[in-house]
Amino acid sequence: MPTDPDLLSLNAFDPARGAAADPGTAALLARRQANLGPVSVLFYEEPLHIVRAEDVWLEARDGRRYLDVYNNVASVGHCHPKVVAAIAAQAATLNVHTRYLNEPTEAYLERLKATLPAALSNLALTCSGSEANDLALRLARTATGRQGIIVTAAAYHGNTSAVSEISPSAFKQGRPPAHVRIVPAPDARHYGTDLAGGFAASVWQAIGELDEAGFGCAAFIADSIFSSDGVHADPPGFLQAAAAVVRSAGALYIADEVQPGFARTGDAFWGFERHGIAPDIVTMGKPMGNGFPMAGLAARPEVMAPYFAEFGYFNTFGGNPVAAAAGLAVLDVLREQGLQQNAAETGRYLRRKLEALQASHPSIGTVRGAGLFLGVALCRDDDPDPGAARRVINGLRQRGVLIGACGRHGEVLKIRPPLTFKPEHADELVDALAEALTD
Amino acid sequence: MPTDPDLLSLNAFDPARGAAADPGTAALLARRQANLGPVSVLFYEEPLHIVRAEDVWLEARDGRRYLDVYNNVASVGHCHPKVVAAIAAQAATLNVHTRYLNEPTEAYLERLKATLPAALSNLALTCSGSEANDLALRLARTATGRQGIIVTAAAYHGNTSAVSEISPSAFKQGRPPAHVRIVPAPDARHYGTDLAGGFAASVWQAIGELDEAGFGCAAFIADSIFSSDGVHADPPGFLQAAAAVVRSAGALYIADEVQPGFARTGDAFWGFERHGIAPDIVTMGKPMGNGFPMAGLAARPEVMAPYFAEFGYFNTFGGNPVAAAAGLAVLDVLREQGLQQNAAETGRYLRRKLEALQASHPSIGTVRGAGLFLGVALCRDDDPDPGAARRVINGLRQRGVLIGACGRHGEVLKIRPPLTFKPEHADELVDALAEALTD
Q1: Which residues in chain A are closer than 8 Å to B80, comparing Cβ atoms?
Q2: A310/chain B closest Cα distance in angstroms
Q3: What is the pTM of this model?
Q4: Residue of A36, A106, A113 lying closest to B28 (CB–CB)
Q5: ipTM surpassing 0.90, yes or no?
Q6: What is the residue extent of each domain of chain B?
Q7: Over the stretch A247-288, which tens digit does the pLDDT of each residue have?
Q8: What sign does the dihedral B208-B214-B216-B220 (CA atoms) show?
C-alpha cells in the first residue's frame, strides 16, 4: 500500500498503467505528452477529453456529461454567463496594468475589503495563489526579521520556489529545508479529543525548534480547511489556540484561503471566520475570478510596509480591470444566487446522505468538512486505504462523476463541487458512490 | 542627481511631490491609496485615470486620448477585437485546468512550439513571466546541481521571492545575495568597441567567482534586449560569445523573452534569434495573451526531467483553454496583420526620425534598440541625465504621449508601443519629443 504519496500524483494518469480508450482521445494524449513531457499532469487511469462545460457539468468529446464534484475554481458554476459577459465587456473596453488608475480595479478592491476584517486594509492583487503566498512569506519574514515557517504535514501552498519549500505534499523526493517545520495536521486520529490544545502544542513545539535552530518563527501558514491534509474543519474554533500561540511568539498567522474562501464552507465567507480568528495575512486565489487568473492577499498596513520599503514590487497582470470585472461578477453572483447559503444547505444535505452511506459501508471511516468541501476517509481495518480511494475515484468516473483525493496517505475522497451544486446532484453523487464502493 | 534608482520607482508617482489635478481623479487616487497602501505603484507626477483603450490609444476620464508608446502587453493593440472575441467565446465554452485534456491547449502549444527551436520541445505554461522565470531557475539548478545565477546590473526578471533575488533593479535597499553575481550590461559605454568579447569576459569572470565561492554557476539569464538595463540590442550576434562561455562552463543559458519576444524586435520572432544563439531555456510572458494573464517556458526534455522527477508541479490557471484561445488569437493577428514586418519597418522609420532629432538636440546621447523597442539615452556633458528623462516623460504626457524610462541610472527613454504603431504615430511621438526636449 503506498503511503505518503506526493499530493500532485494522487489520481494521476500513469502512461505505464493506463491509456485512452478511444482513438481520438489517444491521439490528443500523444500530442499532450509530446508538448509538455514531464510537465504533464493528467487525472485518471483513462484521461478525460473535455470539450465544454456548464454549471456543474463537464461534457466529454464523446458527448457524455460528467457531474463535476471536484472543481472549485469554477465556483459559481462553469462558464457562468454573468462572469463571461463581464470579462468580455471589460476586455473590449480596457485591459491595462494598474500603474494608471482605473475605476473597476478600485471598485473591486473595495468590494473585496468589505468581506474582510477591517484591520486588513491593504490588499495586493496577483495572478495566482502561488504568487500571493510567495509574497505573504516575504511580508512575514521582513516584518518579523525571522526566517522560519510552520506548515502542516501534507500542506500545499503553491508552485513558486519559495512556496514549494513550504509544500511538503509537492516533494517527490527529499523534504522541506530546515527553516520549514512540519506539524501533524489537525486530525482527531492524531490528536485525540483535545484537537485544539494538541494542535496548538504542536505549533508551540515547532516555534521552539525554529528558535533553537536560529531561524526564529516568522509565520504559521495554514489552509483554513486543511484541504490537502485531508479536510479538517471541525470543531469550529479549534484554530484559536494555535493562533494565540503564534501571536504570543511574535510570529504572524497567515490564513491560506485559496481553497476555503469565497463562501465555500457555507458557515462564513472565509474559512478563518468559522474559527473566529483574526489572521495577520489572508491569501486567496482559485475561485476569485471563476477561472480568470487572479489572486491576492490582504494584510494590515504595518505588515505590508516593511517589505515594500525594501523592495519594489509590481505585478503586471495583477489587478487589471478585466480581473476586477471578473471578480466583481463573482461577488455579485455569490450574493444574487445565495450561494453561501446553498453551500451550507446542500452541504448539510450531502453530508447527511454520506453519513447514511457510512452506516452500510464500513470502508467509510469518517465523513467530515464544512459546506461544499467534504472529505470521506476510506479505511481498511481502521488503516487509511488509498488504493480504495483510487478505485472509487476511477469507478465514479466510469459512472459519470468526477471527484479527487487528498490526505497525507491519499485515502480521503475530496468533494468540492461548484457552489451551485443542488440536492439532486448530491443524490446522483451518493448513488454512484454507493455503487463504486460496492464494486 | 539620483543614480541607480530601483527600476520600479522610475517615473513613479510620489504623493509628496505630485497630485491629481482634477477632483474626480484625486478622489480615485485617494481610494487607491486606501486600498493598496504601499503596494500602489502609479506613473507620473500627476497620475492618469484611464477609462478605455483601442489600438495604440488610451483614453482618460476627461476624454483626452493618449498615444501609447509604452505598453508592450497589449502588443497587437489594445482591446483587439479578434483576441477579445476569442477570450469571450472560449470563456463561454470551457475554462478548466489542464488535468483533463482539451483541444485548444494542445493546439496552442503546437503553434507556440513551431516558433521555437525544435530542440526546446517541452513547454510549461504559467500565469506570469515571474512564475516562468521562477521555474526556469529551478530547472537550471536541478539540472546542473549548482546554485549560482548570473544577471546584468539593472536586470529585472520578476516578482517572486526567487526571481526578486536575481532582479537587482527591484532592490530599494541592499543587494542580491552572494549566489547571484552581477555583470555590467552590454553597453558600449562600458565595454568599448569589443562589446561581444568584453561582455563574455565579464560572464566568464562571474562564473569563476561563483565556482570559487562554492555555488557553481547554474545559469546565466538575460533579457535578450536588456530592457531594464537601458535597451542594448546591437550588434546582432554579440551574445554568441557570452553564450559560448556559459556552455563551456556547463551552465545553462536562459533567454528571458518576456520583453523582446513575440515579434517586437522586427528582425525575428524571438530576441535570441537576432543573436543567432540557441538557449537552453526560453521564458516568455507579457504580450503572449495581449493582456490575458499567461506566460510560460520552453526547454529541452533533459533540462525539464530532473526537476519534475523531484517535485510535483502544477499550475492551476496555467495553460487553461481560455489562455490558449487568447494566445492563438495573438499568433493569428501577428501573422494576419504582418506585425513583425511592421515592427521592423515602423521601427526603422522611427529610429531614423529620432536620429535626426539627435542632430539638433545634444541632450540625446544615443538612439538604440531594434524594431519597436527603442531606447533614447539622455545625457548632460556625456553623463546620464535621469532628471531630464523624468522631465521629458512628464512633458510628453502633457502633450498626450505615454512613454517610460529604463537604464541603470534611469536616463533612457523607453519606447515600446503596441506593434500596430504606424509612421503617423511615430511622427506624433517625435514632434512631441522635440517640444518636450526644448522645454
Answers
A1: none
A2: 5
A3: 0.97
A4: A106
A5: yes
A6: 7-76+339-438, 81-336
A7: 999 999 999 999 999 999 999 999 999 999 999 999 999 999
A8: negative
